[in-house]
Design goal:
Two copies of one chain form a homodimer. With 234 residues, chain A is an alpha/beta fold. Chain A has helices at residues 17-31, 46-56, 74-82, 99-109, 127-130, 150-153, 155-159, 180-190, 207-223; strands spanning 5-8, 35-40, 63-69, 85-90, 116-120, 137-143, 163-167, 195-198.
Chain lengths: 234, 234
């Protein structure tokens, strides 16, 4: 029925994940693979956002998605149905991916014909932020129902991302204590360079800005001028 | 302004957390401290649920709350305002609490005059489920906006909880793909013994059942007949 594969990755043997991530980033640069690491809490809408992104960029950007989960294969099936190349990565209970686990996934996946590879990290606002995966851009999704205080409570996630998508804006009326200005201020308090885009993966609100950002990034990567992200350990 | 304290706990030196958790559980049983470990994703509504619980049980149950966070002290302040004894635990970047970190918090907190101590764990569906804190009951909150597929993707969390509160039921209409029957089936697929209660910490829906459960547990604990929970490592 479906032709995506499931890869069981193993925890890295490398003691220095930062050095390994820099190495992987160089390898990916040389072979022209543009990798984005997508992080969020469970249920913030990573898969739904990706499905709409794939649909909106169909015909112009060839996307591959690596779905990392502790267990299950719900997401890879959904992504494949949306029309992108997909692979399911099982982390064997691990709460995050490190650079070598990412490398194992990338090597099995095969990314030669893709413009953009998105790693959907394990749903978790804590641990994935600590481990540089080797991606060129880190993106996080914060959904409106989670509350506008999250940048205060999960600082590293916001420090290590170049872009925060504020998702589920279609339900802002039902969550009237969520303050859009405040959440942006709090994100910029943690990281002044983090771009913030308000979206709804359900209605498509804000998707033009998000997909334009993706296209700009792809062009920048292809031109060779893209600078690697700074990774903060704390 | 506020008299709650902030405790910086350190990662355990014990190799065997399960053994240490059993030891802590015995210590707490002997001194009559009933400890509940409360877990959820970031933003599922742990603090809001606790605030309403404290208000509804005011005068009948003396509650203390240990707020574990990587950083910040928003939650302890909110809990104290709600009228319970509160302490803030900083985990120093750690994504969960183990039994010894819990013990450090309990010892600093002072729990002699309390009927119920609730440990609000770090917002995370993955790691906290792996570490037995020594609590007598494990409770998790899944909020409607997170989606009904979470028991499929975060199995250990549901396996290790005796009760799942499905929160934010007031917004079920806005999240019409959330299937209440399905989520209950999926939770019971992971753990047939996990009780499920549908609540809204905003409107108070379902709180009678939840506070009755708490009162029953407190009585059972005080009678000495409460059995310790089974902890699954995988």
């Amino acid at each position: 029925m479906s032709d995506y594969r499931i890869i069981e990755v193993k925890q890295s043997v490398f003691a220095d994940n930062n050095a390994d991530a820099a190495k992987l980033r160089n390898e990916l640069k040389e072979e022209g693979t543009f990798l984005i690491n997508l992080m969020s809490s469970p249920g913030a809408g990573k898969t739904t956002t990706l499905k709409r992104t794939i649909a909106e960029l169909a015909g112009s950007v060839k996307i591959g998605v690596m779905e990392a989960d502790i267990d299950g294969e719900v997401d890879a099936a959904a992504i494949e149905q949306a029309g992108a190349k997909a692979i399911q990565i099982h982390t064997g209970g691990m709460c995050h991916l490190d650079a070598d686990m990412t490398r194992q996934g990338i090597r099995e996946f095969g990314t030669k014909d893709l413009d953009l590879v998105i790693l959907e990290n394990v749903g978790n606002l804590v641990c994935p932020a600590e481990f540089d995966t080797g991606a060129m851009r880190n993106v996080m999704i914060l959904s409106v129902p989670e509350g506008d205080d999250k940048p205060l409570k999960y600082p590293l996630m916001f420090k290590n991302c170049q872009l925060a998508l504020i998702n589920k804006c279609d339900v802002l009326a039902a969550f009237d204590d969520f303050d859009c200005e405040k959440v942006e201020q709090r994100i910029h308090f943690r990281n002044p360079d983090c771009k913030v885009i308000f979206i709804s993966a359900k209605t498509g609100e804000g998707f033009d800005e998000w997909t334009d950002t993706l296209k700009d990034w792809i062009a920048e990567f292809k031109s060779g001028s893209m600078k690697p992200p700074v990774h903060h350990d704390i």
